[in-house]
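1st attempt posting a full record on here, be nice pls
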Amino acid sequence: LKADRELVLEAVRQVGDALLYAADPLKADRELVLEAVHQNGNALLYAAVPLKADRELVLEAVRQNGNALHFAAERLKSDRELVLE
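the predicted structure (as tokens):
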């Protein structure tokens, strides 16, 4: 079930933190992670490392919850627009 994309997608739409229980390949699925952070910005914590450097995805997470910036890639933590968001 952890690897069932449709099931996990529906779960993260309801509770973003459900990303924690997804199979690793799904934690690298940009669309799925975007849905998770849209619901709960802190779900960025569970995203695959490359997605933590995806500016658009991190911006969505920070807009939902400013604390999500803590889980972003280091280079984005000094991005003025993200920090001010």
